[in-house]
Amino acid sequence: MTLPHPNTDQISLPIVLGVLGDPTRLAIVRYLASKQGVPLNCSQFLDLGSKTNLSYHLAKLREAGVTRAEVVGTNRMITLRRADLDARFPGLLDSVIAAAGDDPALPAVGGHDIEIHA
Amino acid sequence: MTLPHPNTDQISLPIVLGVLGDPTRLAIVRYLASKQGVPLNCSQFLDLGSKTNLSYHLAKLREAGVTRAEVVGTNRMITLRRADLDARFPGLLDSVIAAAGDDPALPAVGGHDIEIHA
DNA sequence: CCAATTGTTCAATAACTTTTGAACTAAGGA
DNA sequence: TCCTTAGTTCAAAAGTTATTGAACAATTGG
């Protein structure tokens, strides 16, 4: 049960930019970045939208090559594809995250501690 | 006859990313960047679409704060708002332009020399 | 086995974006 | 003044994206 991800060389600049041009998805990426590589499951983003809606946005991020989702039990553990994005578009992710870092107009995740059932 | 532009501090990250997430607009930005600050008029982008369609895309770029348009006679001279974007989102524009620089999937402008009627 | 948890899929709808042609404005040159 | 050039605006059509709720699948714990 592995989910489809583009290879690094298949990641497209306009698609990545388009995907990041949505406040909810930008907030997801910012929160993932703030967690420094620690994988998160979907439920930890529920502040940003309904379960169905997050499933949609997380699929967009994964299909664009921005995130990786690994199936662990009933959870999908999500990480940023930092190294892959840096290799393909040097500096892009860092500048986006830095720019998003201090934007009060973006939605934010509360940051509850959640036990993962795996 | 000046056109509306956002102030530097009004430029929004998700809006800029969304606007750049379109191959035509990314090609416009890339071509402007390749011209190193030399202003271009709309007609010089006609390789990328119809006159009406370019008017639409150039308005999007201007309203997002990515470009500046100055009215000179019947022309709109268009430049990248490099300094403003660098001030607001350091490194972002450079990494986008670098990433777009070698993308054969993006449309391109021929680069005809055109006399400007002003 | 049963119930709870995690997340997906589907269909519907609403909202937005892109593209087009026709009509228009405004300035410049003959 | 009349014609051309440069670009906008408008309304329509087409296409895409976001959001929702109901139903579903898969796994885990009791």
Task: Provide key terms for this protein.
two-stranded antiparallel ribbon, mainly alpha, 43% helix, 5 helices, DNA-binding, Arc Repressor Mutant, subunit A, 118 residues, homodimer
How would you describe this structure to a colleague?
The structure is a homodimer of 118-residue chains. The first copy, chain A, is mainly alpha-helical. Chain A has one domain (8-101): Winged helix-like DNA-binding domain superfamily/Winged helix DNA-binding domain (Arc Repressor Mutant, subunit A, Orthogonal Bundle). The first copy, chain A, has helices at residues 13-20, 23-34, 51-64, 82-88, 92-101, and strands at residues 67-72, 75-80. Chains A and B meet through α1 and α5 of A and α1 and α5 of B. The first copy, chain A, binds a DNA duplex (30 and 30 nucleotides) through residues 1, 22, 24, 41-43, 49-60, 73-76, 117-118. Chains A, B: InterPro entries: ArsR-like_HTH, HTH_ArsR_DNA-bd_dom, WH-like_DNA-bd_sf, WH_DNA-bd_sf. Chains A, B: It comes from Rhizobium loti (Mesorhizobium loti). Chains A, B: One of its GO terms (molecular function) is DNA-binding transcription factor activity. Chains A, B: This is ArsR family transcriptional regulator.
